[in-house]
Batch of 4 targets.
Target 1
Amino acid sequence: MPISVSTDPIRPTERQAFWTEAICRSFANIETKPLGCVVVSGHFEFVEIGGAKLVRFDSSPQCYTRDARLVSRAGSDEFMFDFQRRGRSAMVQAGNEGTIDPGYGVLYDARRPFEDRLFGPEQRAELLIATVPAASLLRSIPSAERLCARPVPLSGTVARSIAAMVRDAISLSDAPARQDEPDIVAYLSALLRLAAGASHQLSRPDLFRLIDTHLRTNIAAVRPVPALAAEFGISERTFHRIFADRETTFERHVLHLRAELFKNLLRQPSLATVSIASLAHQCGFADAAHATRAFKNKHGTTPRDFRASVPVRF
């Protein structure tokens, strides 16, 4: 279950102290300072997965600082990576300085002083933050310290899928626990390798999670295997082996995802008046007949009968 924090119920005069304390208590020892005259406002959701901490974070313009005094007093043995979603960040560390726009990320070393200024349109900045043990990241990327405060592009399919996976890990953290928790260090290492022009070196199990995330996001228009394999930097043979490892095929997995999404849409009261054909199209089925056959094969009933059986909620 994620920890959720918001300044909304706090009196404006007390928000700055509350916000700083909440961040320090939950995931990072820092000092905060408002930028400009906007009333302090912020929200974050925080979860721990394995040895990693994942945060969905947004705030009014703020400067977040960890100086030498705080490093010495609080200690830390972690690296942090920000996925910029809205607004901009100005990151400074160890002589490096980078401006991070949406569609980019940035690595920084919590063992050393840094300054991060968040600002953006409508006085709002939003990002995802992944915090991992320093020793684990350095084993995978020995040069990580030299990469801090430099913009990392998140435009490729692998990078976008990693960002989406982190987002989903936070959003779905109250769902039943899964045995195959994501290896956040492996994914951050892959981002840094790609930014340096190298291959991602992800294992087949790690790639399956990314491909699955990508398919769920793009299920209405799934690209053919040759194109997907190229986008994920692997051969078609390896692509098919990823699914064979799980005793399925790419085609069966796509059909499974479409049928599950179709089921979820059919049970939503807000979509009760939307036609079966329209919902089938949203799931990527060619037509209502194809969707009905796939749904009945998987769930033993037709979409129309399933929808009729869903209890009405008032």
Note: Residues 250-266 form the longest helix (17 residues).
Target 2
Amino acid sequence: MKTYMIIMMVFCATHIMAQQSLDTIYTNDTKNVALFFPEPIRQGITGSDNFVFTYNREKEQYFGLLQAKPGKESNLLVVNRNGAIFSYIVRYKKQLSKLNYFIPFSNSIGNEKPIVTDSIQVVTSEKNIDNRTYYYQKFCSYLLNRNQRIGRIKKRTQGIGLTVENIVFDKEELYFVVRIENNSTMDYDLNFLNLSIETRQKGKRKSLQSLYQEPIYKQHLPSKIAEGKMVRFVYVMPKFSLSDDRRAILELNEKDGERNIKLNISHRYINNPN
């Protein structure tokens, strides 16, 4: 069975070589030529005995060593752990100008895995994404219909009010139920609403470091809040917790305006959600 597989792989490589022009790698019998691949090597085969390609067969590694004795040119076929196939012409050369080859993934001539398998994986992945999005939609709607509060987390400026009504933990996510009120006499155009984690640096030179948190999902986030109106929406974030020297910052920014709000959220609310 093993001999059959080797014959088939060498045959495939020869067939591919007939179809397209392959890069050439030069080597000799006095130096090791190292080939570094984007994924660990699972199998490597040369088409002639005067070329030897050695790699770790017990523990997969990213590189292999190529040597040769004087003779006719041959080919080298390498299969990575992820199924990517690489094929090269190999030639003996007494004087070498290059001893290391860093092989990019773009040099792969194909993949040994059937296309249908990849298609099934893509369909399954898309189905999982759709199911997760559907769950977020339903749970966010449920939270918006509830009259639940986690505390008094609010701030106002120039007629604009920003409130975190609720923080709920479910499965692997934190759900932030947010309300924006526009009690001013002008519409409010939303530029962005970002959540970040702020860390207080202790010592003589006190400073703040802020790290933006990317939402997984947003429901009913508006682009405009008309004068005299109020909107409620939900941000879904990957779960996280905070030490007592860190806090969450919800930053509301107006497009082409200066009615901006930074709302501090204590670590107590983050670590003890509903």
Note: The chain is about 20% helix and 45% strand.
Target 3
Amino acid sequence: MIEGTADMFASHPVATSTTVDEAAAVLSDVFLPVQVDPTNGSSDVSMHLNALTLGRITFGYMRFRNAVRIRTAEPVEYHLDVPVHSMMTARADGGAPLHGTAQTAGVFMPGRSVELDCSDWFAQVAVMIPRRDLQTELERLLDEPVSTPVDFDTAFDLASAGGRAVSQALRLVDEGSRQPNGALGHPLAVRSLEQVFVQSLLLGQPHSHSASLEAPRGRSGSRAVTRVVEMLRDDPARPWTVGELASAVFTSVRSLQEDFRRSLDTTPMAYLRKLRLERAREDLLVADPDGRTVTEVAARWGFLHVSRFASAYAARFGELPSETLRR
């Protein structure tokens, strides 16, 4: 657990806000779109925020003087909320409540909006982790591709071994952030801290792939498939062909197809199509409906027939792309 009254990441102040509109604007800019409402009748929330980016992970420390309710938009990334003073009650997509304290943090998944009821004098560490990076790190640990998202248990026991490891990683980031010429000034050290934090979370908090991490490694996964998956994720908008992918990993088209079916129960092109749909959804979730169109987003990700794109999108996500854009 992380306890104490000192602000974390104090050498990286972002803002001190006195109104709900200011607080919402600051949090939306650093993390994701939110709505902030006081719950005690006062319009003065007196929020302070420190934040920094380590690699591609955003770390923040926020504190409120008065009780507030925070409603988030549908997140694109993973979020970890670690209370350090007072308590909160959180609900993801209106589900069962999580009671966050100095002993219990919350892990929140992409695609599920969250409502947090925070008591007076509430403070927490908030971490935003890109889902692409988290899945890539999981694949490195497993030495094989992963075809389904990582779905964490929401309640994170900070007194557990995994909780202590994540708390220690947060302290390392905090200590590094306070040193002007310290480790955070070196790219390799930043990458190492980033990996330590993500691996601590993956190994310490139960999730949908925990059993695979704990299973004995009988044989390595297909390195050709792993490499191709990395290539596709790095540049999904590129007009890849199966022949080009097979050549890049020094194998035949037939072998690559068979390896994909055996490892992921799909084909390279079907995997790429799924990946492009996910990236299109990310764009639609954050796009301004008055400034972007479904056609533009579809074209960006290689879907030239909008009707086919809309049909595939609806089959994948249960709603039309125009509905996502309006929301």
Note: The longest helix spans residues 268-286.
Target 4
Amino acid sequence: MSDTHPEVAAAAEIRARIDTTKPHSARFWNYFVGGKDNYPVDREIGDHIKEIFPGLVDVAVTSRHFLGRAVRYLAGEQGVRQFLDIGTGLPTADNTHEVAQRVAPDARIVYVDNDPIVLAHANALLTSTPEGRTAYLDADLYDPEAVLKAAEGTLDLSRPVALMILNTLGHVADHGRAVALVQRLMAGLPSGSHLVISDSTATSEGMIAASEAYNASGAVPYYVRSVEEIAAFFDGLDLVDPGVVPVTDWRPEPTDPAAPAVDAYGAVGRKP
């Protein structure tokens, strides 16, 4: 009989699943936003892409600012108290639960990812105000019904939920499949729920070249899409003003730093 503590064994199993020989999207993005949870292989492709297209760093940073503004809008102006953040990535500053609970201490947040390195860092996410709650699910975007079922352990799906999918859907190669996955998730949420999406877009030669370089690196491919394809994720929803726009143009705040033009679009839509 083994004397190994179950938590120690689980941590070892997670570490064994982490491949440090190939770039990884969550670690790569973490490097771009100034985090420390990345490896030499991630920094190498990151530096290479900076040479090809320095603007991708701006995409990473401004997409993070978009997340904050969207969450503050939903928690503050719309009274949303439940957030389902799929493809959460690695924790940095101002994660969804931190922003939401700053506005509404009783907010509940469920993070979803199925990546071993994100799972290994999940404890850094699992903080909460006493009034609220934060949970992490090791679950798969490709099984929306299982995600929703698991989220019921923390969220009340009979009440509005903000579904957050930021810089994640590019991993789904087929656009039609990506749209269907989003629709299946929204189908399980009630009227008054919101969808928040942002993603890199094929709106410049530089971004397209950066995407091709990343996909040639051995990492799991990530596909940039047209603005029209981003807009299609919101079919059937009521778009919140100003609609599908560059992330820097979505309800900018007076305290925001001057924003460069970026190849990333985002929007918030409400389920009627």
Note: Strands lie at 82-86, 108-113, 133-138, 162-166, 194-200, 238-239, 245-246, 264-270.
